[in-house]
Amino acid sequence: MNRADRRRFAAAWAHALMGTSYVPMTSAEIQGRLHGYTDRLVDALLSDPFDTTPAREVGVDLIAVHFTSAESLARTVSLIGEEMLDVLRLESTPEWRSRVAGLQAALCSGFVQAARKRTLDEQEAIRQAVLDARDAVEQALRTSEARFRAIFAEAAIGIGIGDMDGRILEVNDSLIRIMGRSGDELRSMLVSDMMHPADPESVWRMYEELVRGERDQFRVEKQFSRPDGGTVWTEMIVSLVRDEDGLPLYQVALIEDVTDRLMLQERLRHQAMHDPLTRLPNRALFLERLTRVLRDHGPEDRVALCYMDLDGFKVINDSLGHHVGDDLLVAVADRLAAVVHGDDRLVARMGGDEFVILLQSSAGTDQAVEVADTVLDALNEPFRVGGHELSVGASIGIVERPVSGQTAAELMRDADVTLYWAKSDGKGRWALFDPERNATEVAQFHLSAKMPAALERGEFYVDYQPLVGLRDENVVGVEALVRWAHPELGRLGPDRFIGLAEETGLIVSLGRWVLREACRQAKHWQDQFGSTAPFVSVNLAVRQSRDPDLVGDVAAILAETGLEPSRLQLELTESAIMGTADEPLDALRALSQMGVRIAIDDFGTGYSNLAYLRHLPVHELKIAGSFMEGLRDAERADPVDARIVATLVDLAHALGLTVTAEGVETLAQARRMADIGCETGQGYLFAKPGSPEEITQFIADRLD
Question: Where is each EAL domain found (predicted)?
Fold first, then answer.
């Protein structure tokens, strides 16, 4: 906002406040003062981190310059809410609206507190005048009484005087206006006639103590019923006036009408606790209600949360525009409010396209599931929004448990986790919180967090499993298999951490380390066994195969270790290598041209484009071990498995590829695969994965 924009906002503010309060300044002086306030509000709105203190101080200053009426405050709050973002040329996003609401609330808070202090100062002056009247001499008494009469009659707050029997003796015009009764009617009433059904017991207990002379004053917020059926809220101070001997003589009540202020506060609270777009309760109100449920519960009470996220909303919002997205959210909110209702249920918008349903007195998991099913059914019907027929689903995470021992943070965390499960399981469904699954995922998280340091500390090591010729039983190659020597959990196989490494991206650095270790060991075998040394086969994860530095890393490691490229084989899964169909194959071709062998691992379990396969720079197929199961027993071999394996081998040979059978555990399997034409086998029949020393001995024994 430039200086001209700020001056225009200040001018609009001055115009809005015109006539709402008596202010001893000229119009130019008022506008100049408000221009300074505008600078402070704008700076607060744009502050980072966001700080509402300047807005609170502006509220105090408005009282100081005599803008004291509720109308002055209401027009100021309205102007800020309706004009500030437009003048600043800021989009009306939830974040900016939230900041504007924060400024409104802070300004109101400062205004109300300053107004209250001003009123209390006036009340204290009046009370002092009453006390002065008791102690003054006769002439001073007449002067004091005249002064009191003037204050009594002209005071903006209501004043009532009663005797110690509770009869109302005198009232001023302000009290007549506040109570909506005539002076004669009020003077014919007793203090006890002013009781209201909603008065707390403490009000009348303090009053009785004052009448008995046990206290000199008390202050309460109290409501009174008016003859027209309305209710007026007041802030009341009742004081005891004693005679010269200290005995109770009169009671004086000072009563201020705070109805407008309370209504404004209630409106502001409603705005602060409700989503401005959907009008549903927001995160703040939801957490307040949830906290109250957790605090005020019985021993057998249960609570349930259904945390919901819309499926497909982002596509609609991005493609059709945010205005359509906002209208869709409103329609979804209306439908949720229509199907989920009851005093013990709350539907709230948490932000974005996330909603939550609170079941305060849950009857059990079945009830929570029923609510989730109701919501999913309600969302099945398309929405008509802005001339579009839109369909959105939802994923819902359900947490249902006893209230005892729970916190709002724990419930929200578990609901959020369960919502993620529902989305990862396929969307358009609900998922129930499972403590065992959560514990497993937490353990995996801790495991993944420790992997980078474990790699630096050298906790990983490599075992090797031989690939044996099915006809001559010589060791043709070895597969490198990484392990983790975890200091607490012991030896961990790759199934425990490879997936985590892929998710975190650590697989690239871990894979590079494995490649270097495997090539270094293969070079030892190359030096020891010469031309009969086996090649080493290293698995590449999908993320590694997409790494732009892959070719350079392989070349550098081969140069560093001195291993012949033909002694290195890189294994990719069928789905990974076929995933390069729409991507450049330069990396695989470069590796192949370098002399490195390329193998497809677990062949037969994915979805291969056979026409495309013949153009890939592949040297070997490794048939998945699952096909070996049907060939365990020579007499009861599964003819279907046998036919599938034979077809795969024929296909590989037609493409000029060699074949390795994985998972060979019986002699029958080995013989059958040899008969089919498979060149090499890998499995427990030949050797389990072992250390470099064990595999070195295995190779030597086969050569002997």
Answer: 444-703
Q: Map 222-262 to HEC letters.
A: EEEECCCCCEEEEEEEEEEEECCCCCEEEEEEEEEECHHHH
| Token pair belonging to 650 | 């024929």
Helix (H) or strand (E) holding 135: helix 94-135
Element containing residue 397 per DSSP (H, E):
strand 393-402
Backbone angles phi, psi at 541, to 5 degrees: -75, 165
Instruction: Return the structure tokens found at 379.
Output: 């969302």
Cα–Cα distance between 244 and 580 in angstroms, integer? Answer: 103
Structure-model confidence comparison of residues 629 and 160, the more confident one: 160
- HEC string for 503-515: HHCCHHHHHHHHH
pLDDT digits (tens, 9 = 90+) for 525-577: 999 999 999 999 999 988 888 888 999 999 999 999 999 999 999 998 877 77
Residue 250 CB-density burial (10 A; 0-12 exposed, 13-18 middle, 19+ buried): middle
Closest CA to 465 of 455, 457, 476: 476
**CA–CA gap between residue 311 and residue 379 (Å, rounded):** 11
Q: Are strands 597-603 and 231-242 parallel, antiparallel or unpaired?
A: unpaired
Residues contacting residue 69 through CB under 8 Å, at least 6 positions apart: 20, 21
Asked whether 47 and 102 are in contact (CB, 8 A), the reply is no
Whether CATH 1.10.490 fits 3-119: yes
DSSP reduced 3-state for 605: coil
| pLDDT confidence bin for 378, thresholds 50/70/90 | very high
In whole angstroms, give the CA distance from residue 54 to residue 488.
Answer: 54
**Which is higher by pLDDT, 585 or 374?**
374
User: Position of tokens 């003062």?
Assistant: 33
Question: How far is it, in rounded angstroms, from Cα 654 to Cα 497?
Answer: 37
Beta-bridge mates of residue 209: none
CATH H-level superfamily of 155-262: PAS domain (3.30.450.20)
How far is the first Cα of the chain from the last one, in angstroms, to the nearest whole number? Answer: 88
The domain locations on the chain are 3-119, 155-262, 274-433, 447-703
- Topology of domain 447-703, per CATH? TIM Barrel (3.20.20)
**Which has the higher per-residue pLDDT, 598 or 546?**
598
β-strands 490-492, 475-486 pairing: antiparallel
What's the pLDDT tens digit per position in 439-481?
A: 777 877 888 888 899 989 999 999 999 999 998 889 999 999 9
Instruction: Note the pTM of the prediction, 2 decimals.
Output: 0.54
- What's 274-433's CATH class? alpha beta
What pLDDT is stored for residue 581 in this prediction?
Answer: 46
Which H/E stretch holds residue 395? strand 393-402
How many C-beta neighbours within 10 Å does residue 214 have? 11
Query: pLDDT (tens digit, 9 = 90+) per residue, 255-310?
Result: 998 888 888 888 888 888 899 999 999 999 999 999 999 988 887 899 999 999 99
Mean pLDDT for the stretch of residues 227-248: 90
For residue 7, pLDDT beyond 60: yes
pLDDT in tens, 91-139: 888 888 888 888 888 888 888 888 888 888 877 877 777 676 566 545 6
Q: 3-state class of 691 per DSSP?
A: coil
Report strand pairing: 354-359 vs 345-351.
antiparallel
- Residue 334, C-beta contacts closer than 8 angstroms, at least 6 positions apart: 278
Beta bridge mates, 538: 480, 570
